[in-house]
Design a protein that fits this description.
CATH class of the largest domain: Alpha Beta
Strand order of the largest sheet: 2-5-1-6-7
Strand content: 5-15%
CATH topology of the largest domain: Rossmann fold
CATH superfamily of the largest domain: P-loop containing nucleotide triphosphate hydrolases
Oligomer: single chain
Number of strands: 7
Distance between the termini: 60 Å
CATH architecture of the largest domain: 3-Layer(aba) Sandwich
Largest sheet: 5 strands, parallel
Helix content: 40-55%
Length: 418
C-alpha cells in the first residue's frame, strides 16, 4: 500500500507533466483520508491555483492558516490571490506575525513580500517599498549570494560560442516544432505563452526543464562548458539532442507537434536551439525596463538560480549580461528571432497577436485573441493569476510610484536614458 509520502510524490510528478486533474484527484483523496495535513493542502492549493481555480486555492490556503496561523508561506500565497482594496482581513494578522520572535528568518521573508503586495494594492507605496526592501535584504543575507557565479557563467558561454561555427546547421528536422519563449523574469513570457497556446494546434509546456537537462547531460564537465563536446554534437549527423527532447515531451502524452517551451533561461542557448531544432521559433519578450526591474524586485523567487533578484545592483548586472548575450544571438541569427514588446502588445493587442501567430507559422485562430476565455492549460509561475485575465495596462509605468525609493535602479535608468 502506498504511503502518504509516496502519494504526495506521485501527485507532484503528475503536475510536472501538466496532468493537474489527476494530481488534484490524488491530493483531494489524501485530504479526505488525512485531515488537516499541511503538505497535502499546500500541494492541493497550488494545483488549484495552476489551473485557474483561484477561489478554491484561496480557501485552501486560508484553511492552512486556520490549522497553522504561523504558516508564512500560506500567508504569502493568500496575499498573491487577494485584492486588499476589497478585503484586508489578514493584513493586521501578518503585520503582527512578522514581529513575533518565534517566526524564523525565512518566514519573515515570506511575510515581507506578502505585506509589500498588500500595501501596493492599497496604493501605500511607502509601506509597500519598505516591506519589499525588507524581504529582499533579508533574502540576500541568508543566501549569501555572490554575483561572480553568474558573471563567470555568462562569460564562459560567450567565450565558447564565439568560436562555434553555426553555419553547419544540417540537422534533420524532427517532428516537433518547439516555440521557445525567452526573456527576463516578469517580462510578459507567461502572457505570450497563454496567447499562443490558446491555439488549437499548440500544447502549452510551461517552464520545461528539457533544455537544462540536455545541457547538463551533454555539454557540462565539472560545472564547465565543454567546447569540444558542443562542437562534436553540432557537427554530428545524429541529432541526439532533438531525440532526447522528444523523449521527454512524450511523457506529457500530447499528440500536438507544436509546443511552447517557456524556460526563461533558454535564451542562453539560442545558438544550440537553432542547430538542433531547425524548425523551432525563438520569441524574446521585452518589457519597459523600469517596470521589469520593479516586477523582479517585488517577487520572492524560490529557485537558487534566481538569487540575483534580491538586490538592485545584482539585477542591473544580470540585465547587462542578459543584454550582451541576447544581442550576440540576434547578430548571429538576425532574421530568425522574434522580439515582442509588452507595451506594444498592451496598446494594440489585435495587431501584435496577429503578427505573433504569423511568425509562428500557425493558422489564424480567434482563440488566441481571447485566450483568457479559451486557454485552460495550467500555469505554474508567479503570473498564474494575472495571465488568466484580458490584457490590461495597470502595471505600465508602475515604477514611477517607487522611483524615489529605488535609487540604484533610477540612477541606472536615467544615465542610460531608459
Amino acid at each position: 500500500m502506498d504511503t502518504l509520502k509516496d502519494n504526495i510524490s506521485k501527485g507532484q510528478s503528475l503536475t510536472k507533466i501538466n496532468n493537474f486533474n489527476k494530481a488534484i484527484e490524488i491530493f483531494e483523496t489524501l485530504n479526505g483520508n488525512f485531515k488537516n495535513n499541511i503538505e497535502v493542502l499546500i500541494n492541493l492549493a497550488g494545483a488549484y491555483r495552476s489551473i485557474g481555480k483561484f477561489e478554491k486555492s484561496l480557501l485552501t490556503y486560508k484553511k492552512i492558516i486556520e490549522i497553522d496561523p504561523n504558516n508564512c508561506v500560506a500567508h504569502r500565497l493568500v496575499s498573491s490571490l487577494n485584492n486588499y482594496k476589497e478585503n484586508n482581513e489578514n493584513l493586521k494578522e501578518m503585520e503582527k506575525l512578522i514581529l513575533e520572535n518565534n517566526i524564523n528568518e525565512s518566514g519573515k521573508i515570506e511575510l515581507s513580500f506578502a505585506l509589500g503586495k498588500a500595501y501596493a494594492d492599497l496604493e501605500d507605496f511607502e509601506k509597500s517599498h519598505y516591506y519589499y526592501n525588507l524581504g529582499n535584504s533579508a533574502k540576500k543575507k541568508i543566501t549569501n549570494f555572490d554575483f561572480s557565479i553568474i558573471s563567470d557563467h555568462f562569460n564562459q558561454i560567450l567565450s565558447v560560442f564565439k568560436e562555434i561555427d553555426f553555419s553547419k546547421r544540417n540537422k534533420n528536422n524532427n517532428n516537433l516544432k518547439p516555440l521557445f519563449i525567452c526573456g527576463l523574469p516578469r517580462s510578459g513570457t507567461t502572457l505570450i505563452e497563454q496567447i499562443i497556446s490558446a491555439h488549437k494546434d499548440v500544447y502549452s509546456g510551461g517552464e520545461l526543464q528539457f533544455i537544462p537537462k540536455i545541457i547538463n547531460k551533454y555539454f557540462l564537465s565539472n560545472y564547465q562548458l565543454n567546447k569540444l563536446k558542443i562542437k562534436e554534437q553540432v557537427e554530428n549527423k545524429v541529432n541526439r539532442i532533438a531525440f532526447d527532447y522528444n523523449e521527454m515531451y512524450s511523457l506529457h502524452l500530447s499528440s500536438k507537434k507544436v509546443l511552447t517551451d517557456k524556460m526563461l533561461q533558454n535564451f542562453k542557448w539560442i545558438g544550440l536551439l537553432k542547430v538542433f531544432f531547425p524548425n523551432c521559433k525563438i520569441i524574446i519578450c521585452k518589457r519597459n525596463l523600469k517596470d521589469n526591474f520593479l516586477s523582479i524586485f517585488k517577487n520572492n523567487f524560490n529557485e537558487m538560480t534566481m538569487n540575483w533578484t534580491n538586490d538592485e545592483e545584482d539585477i542591473i548586472l544580470y540585465y547587462k549580461y542578459y543584454l550582451e548575450l541576447t544581442e550576440f544571438w540576434k547578430e548571429k541569427f538576425s532574421d530568425e528571432i522574434y522580439e515582442l514588446e509588452y507595451e506594444k502588445l498592451v496598446n494594440d493587442s489585435k495587431y501584435e497577436i496577429k503578427k505573433l501567430i504569423e511568425y509562428c507559422e500557425l493558422n489564424e485562430d480567434k482563440s488566441c485573441y481571447e485566450f483568457y476565455k479559451f486557454n485552460k492549460f495550467p500555469i505554474q509561475t508567479a503570473s498564474a493569476f494575472q495571465a488568466r485575465k484580458p490584457i490590461y495596462n495597470t502595471s505600465v509605468n508602475l515604477f514611477d510610484k517607487y522611483s524615489n525609493k529605488l535609487i540604484k535602479f533610477s540612477k541606472f535608468l536615467n544615465s542610460n536614458n531608459l
